[in-house]
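Design review, sub-item: ligand-bound model
Attendees: FS, YL, KQ
YL presented the inputs for the flavin-adenine dinucleotide complex:
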Amino acid sequence: MNGAPTETEKEMSNSPNLKSADLVVIGGGIIGCWTALHLARAGKQVCVVEKAEIAHNGSGRNRGNVRVQLREAVERDLINRSLVLWQGFEESARTTVEYRVTGNLLVSYDETLTADFQIEVDRHRAIGLDAHIVEGAALRELVPHISPDIVAGFLTTQDGHVNGQLATWEAARQAKLAGVRFLRGTAADLIEHDHGKVTAVQTSAGRIATESVLVAAAGDSVRLLEPLGIKTPISLALHQILVTEKLPFVTGPYLRCASPRISFCQTASGTLLLGLGPASDIAPDAPQRVEPSKIEAIARETIRLVPALKDAHIVRSWSGLFDLTPDGRAMIGPAEHVSGLWIATGFNGHGMAIAPSVTESLAQAILGETPTVSLDPFAPVRFERPLDIEASDEPVSRVGHLGNLVAPPIQ
Ligand SMILES: Cc1cc2nc3c(=O)[nH]c(=O)nc-3n(C[C@H](O)[C@H](O)[C@H](O)COP(=O)(O)OP(=O)(O)OC[C@H]3O[C@@H](n4cnc5c(N)ncnc54)[C@H](O)[C@@H]3O)c2cc1C
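KQ shared the predicted structure:
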């Protein structure tokens, strides 16, 4: 994690004696903070309850890939809208959230995958994206020291990169300015309801009366929703990250290898955030360790991909959880049987990228307005009864499924 901005942290004092709110948001990640911001700007009295700290979990531990490449069809409008909103957010930030357009580059040691890259270039162009095969000097301009064993890459150029930690604190800071009240270090324990309507949230700091609750607590949402009879089929996977010292230019785009799934980005400050997929399953209460065997594998495969990195120093490591749903899509929308209850969870390891448009459309839905981007394909109720949702496009190449971060290796 890149360290919480202390100036902002000081400004984020807790609101004392909070007894009621129009809406209680449970979870101070990017989804909770940014939705709260939209709703406060629309005149609602909002309170965010965060059991640990702003950006303590996924939102402060991610790699900030605002990936357009290999995005599932149902998320395309969300990512396209988010690209615009990220740019505006960067411009409105007090300092910076380090949002930049960087592109994504998928490479392979396996020459036969070049044909699959070409299929994806054609498919991406057909939906209006800028996509290319890059080889030879063009490839080496993007990643000068890439292994000579890498022959070709699939490049998309509209993808972005952001610092998730800074972005979440900035959303919280703007929310506080807009009137959102924060209770940090406060756990929501129970959502009270009466005759099918939300009435209050019991927290470790007391009871908050409310008619509306948004559960944006990532994997912990299960504990809050299942007592209300809401089916929440979320499983967890652990992803591990190594951080290098600040380095001179290594890569422009976010670099991913198709197999093995080593990947990294170079942050605005010059560090590399290294990782190796797929993420591994983990039980909800298991300790989140950085495994020595994983560290070795990440280091080995990074050096194989860019041999010049053999002398780079690792300065930090951390692990973080992906909250996964059976169909790979987030659960976003109202709970059907409890009026006033809203859900936004299960972002499958890529929620930072789409957070701007998810939170914009979710806030609109909560306000009873028509969302800019329809959230129907993400309706939580789909796990209780099948919905008539347009089928997603099937992967047409052997790399098409790599947008799914826990997908099996390429066959
Ligand atoms: C290692 C890693 C790399 C990633 N890389 C990327 C990437 O490159 N691009 C991308 O788009 N996404 C990425 N992601 C995913 C992305 O970070 C998440 O999808 C996104 O941050 C989810 O935000 P959130 O607000 O839903 O959850 P979180 O940020 O996890 O926030 C949930 C909050 O709820 C709080 N909470 C839980 N229970 C309670 C309770 N009972 N009471 C009060 N508070 C509670 C938690 O403390 C937490 O702060 C990555 C994730 C990880 C872990």
